[in-house]
Design goal:
405 residues; alpha+beta; five-stranded mixed beta sheet; 12 strands; 51% helix; globular
Length: 405
């Protein structure tokens, strides 16, 4: 277990209560020790909005990555899982800033708001198809039947992945998600198997695009490789990231957003009566229960945060979800208000690490929920309590979400 260089209080972020609803604990941490120690991760957690913003702007804090929990495994387990770690460390957001910017420059024209808005008809078409599949049953599991397959179909189509392979993508992604769980060697072995299988699959697609270029993201990467801008390993790692994050984030935003609406029936009624509020509702869903709980940083040199000086090499988790509930920034931070303005949430991070797929996630969630409520205005929860599963500190996703209509 890593010994902290600066002595600060520690809190149990991994209790059943905190995993189900971290909000009460985050309020307590923010009030008592806005920077605290997380022994399970060998890192410090920042919980104040101002500190998170300052850290994201501080050039002395460089990109870490969310595989740092692997350091808590035994040396033998770490060595066994090194192939997966090497792949993940090539992902955008896990590299140095120059490499991150290099990949963003390649991809940004595919993810601009204008380009993504052009996908709205396709998003609605996929949503209608998925809803048609369950229409006769009068019920569905939102996670399995809608929230996962919808963004998976979109990002796979953008990359040029055959539609017949998209169920494999979902299965791989479920395993890969365990990378972001607290060090559980068995689950991480399953993650590694899926990462390696997915890489082999993607190398075949890359070879195919070299032989037969198409109008898709994979072909763009292959052309960039030909120009010396990227390597094959980088292409494979970042296509894996796009396939994984490109649907995992939106899937959880859709499902978590519906839970928020069910738990706040006044806001659900307001949204049904005023569907033009959907964009604002999506922003509030990101603030209240966005998929990303933290972002990782490492100090490249000594740095002062919240009155404490930390040496080079220390690790930090910037609490995006914690900052989104900071009462210094958000009035009544625990109230879900789809009319909230302004709403300067950190759900997509900011600056150089602002989520490349933010515009796509917004469009997919907007069109999906808009279509669901138009087709099923009587949509209602069919569960007693949400079926949450923990993901890293401060994050939780749904394993299932039963609804009737």
């Amino acid at each position: 277990m890593t010994t902290p260089a600066v002595t600060l209080p520690s809190y149990d972020l991994f209790s059943a209560e905190a995993q189900s609803d971290p909000t009460p604990l985050l309020h307590r941490i923010r009030a008592e020790s806005p920077v605290c120690w997380v022994p399970e991760l060998g890192a410090y957690l920042l919980t104040r909005h101002a500190d998170v913003v300052a850290a994201l702007r501080d050039p002395r804090l460089v990109s870490g990555n969310l595989t740092q929990g692997l350091d808590q495994l035994t040396p033998a387990e770490q060595a066994e899982l090194m192939p997966m770690r090497k792949s993940v460390e090539l992902w955008m957001g896990h590299t140095n800033e120059a490499d991150h910017v290099r990949f963003q420059h390649l991809l940004k024209r595919y993810f601009t708001p204008a380009m993504v808005n052009g996908l709205r008809p396709r998003v609605r078409e996929f949503t209608d198809e998925l809803l048609d599949n369950v229409a006769a049953a009068g019920k569905m599991d939102v996670v399995e039947d809608l929230a996962y397959p919808l963004p998976a179909n979109i990002i796979a189509e953008m990359l040029g992945m055959p539609i017949t392979d998209r169920e494999r993508l979902q299965a791989w992604s479920r395993d890969i998600l365990s990378i972001f769980l607290i060090a559980d060697a068995d689950k991480l072995r399953a993650s590694q198997r899926s990462v390696l299988e997915m890489q082999d699959y993607l190398r075949v697609l890359v070879a195919d695009r070299r032989a037969e270029p198409r109008d898709d993201l994979l072909t763009m990467f292959v052309e960039a490789e030909r120009d010396g801008k990227v390597t094959e390993d980088e292409i494979v790692a970042n296509c894996l990231l796009l396939l994984f994050a490109g649907h995992e984030t939106t899937a959880n935003l859709i499902a978590n957003g519906l839970v928020l609406l069910f738990e706040n029936p006044d806001q659900l009624a307001l949204l049904k009566s005023r569907p033009e509020l959907m964009p604002s509702a999506v922003e509030e869903m990101m603030r209240c229960d966005g998929p990303a709980g933290v972002i990782s940083r490492v100090s490249a040199e000594p740095v002062e945060i919240a009155g404490h000086t930390f040496p080079a090499g220390d690790r930090f988790y910037l609490g995006l979800s914690a900052s989104n509930r900071d009462p210094e920034v958000f009035a009544e931070p625990d109230r879900f208000d789809i009319t909230r303005k302004p709403n300067h949430h950190m759900g997509f991070s900011m600056g150089a690490t602002y989520c490349l797929g933010a515009a796509l996630a917004r469009v997919e969630t907007d069109e999906c929920l808009r279509t669901v409520l138009e087709r099923h205005p009587d949509l209602r929860a069919d569960y007693e309590t949400p079926d949450w599963r923990p993901v890293m500190p401060l994050g939780h996703h749904l394993d299932s979400l039963a609804v009737r209509f």
